Amino acid sequence: MNNNIVDLLQLSLEFTPNNQYFKDFLESCLENGVFHKKENAETIIKHINTNLNNSFDREKGLLLLISFLPQISVEVFSNNALSWMLHCSKFIYQRCGVIDSLSIRALTKLIKLSVKFPEVNKETAKQIVPRFLLENVKHKTNIQVSVELLECLQACMSEYSGPSGEFKTDILKLLLRTVEGKPAVVGVAARCVPLLARLGGGGKQGASYKTSWQQQQLSLITLLHSLLNKIYDHIDCVMVAESTSQGELLELESVNEKNVLLRTQRLAAQFSSVSQFLQCMLLEEFPVAKAVAPNAILDVITHAQKPTHASLGSSLEALAVMSV
């Protein structure tokens, strides 16, 4: 690394991570291919590792790592990726929001890149992905689900479907916890839903994938009927037996609001999110032919459109339904 860049890097690292000079320097290095030059790699790696190992400078190390990865060489990645992934895994949910977010972002990028390198790929499948899913999906059932966490989960499911298969039930539970989340969270969760059906082995000619996809589709349809029944629970003629779709009824967080309007709004939010989950299943590519159940889907639409002004009446419940 030439002296000018060395001096600038050293100077930039003296600023706080949220300082605009530091951010501008990293962006400039990325745009000008500074990180791509072999002679610069050793110095950059040294600064990344030094900062990652210092709790006061960890944020800088993560920012530098994230900026470095798009231009990293095969040799450098192969030699350092596993160590960096272990570092990032350790930093997640250490009660520091910025570090949590940056750690997950860096880990996501590392996981996506790892599939291109056989040795790194092997260790990622063996160590990193199971550890991430065990610690952040299976064990931490009370954490707030963030976009960053879901994007990392999506990378694990997409690139490492085998190791992720062991945690399929836990992943489903986590995704269902997002149904009242912000639109960005629900959007990423919805993109994860189709990946659930292809976790684990596919069986002969993808038979297991096909069965799993079909069952998951019917389970979401059953859940939609269940939510509509709760929204329309004061209208007897609108109730539909949830068993008609033949899917396993999935569990969402109970809505026990006494306020009728708030209760209906929450149920409507859940219905909207689950509908988005089903939509992604129908639209996203899948390794085998999908056994779409058009009649079952049409039944949900019919169920949703059943209420009339006459059947709704003029009660508070009716006003709540009409408001959503």
Strand percentage lies at under 5%
Shape: elongated
Mean pLDDT: 85
Structural class: mainly alpha
Intertermini distance = 60 Å
Q: Count the DSSP helices.
A: 16
Instruction: Give the SSE string.
Output: HHHHHHHHHHHHHHHH
**What does the oligomeric state look like here?**
single chain
| Proportion of helical residues | 55-70%
Number of strands: 0
Regions with little confidence, pLDDT below 50 for 5+ residues: none
Main beta-sheet annotation? none
What integer value in Å does the Rg equal? 24 Å
GO biological process, one term: rRNA processing
Pfam families: RIX1 (PF08167)
Subcellular location: Nucleus
Keywords: Nucleus
Quick overview of this protein structure:
The protein has 324 residues and is mainly α. It has 16 helices and no strands.
Commentary on this structure:
Pfam families: RIX1. Its main location: nucleus. Residues 40-182 form the Pre-rRNA-processing protein RIX1 N-terminal domain. Belongs to the RIX1/PELP1 family. The protein is an all-alpha fold. It has a domain at 178-323. Helix content is 67%, strand content 0%. The longest helix is centred in the C-terminal third of the chain and has 25 residues, at 207-231. The chain is elongated. The relative contact order is 0.07.
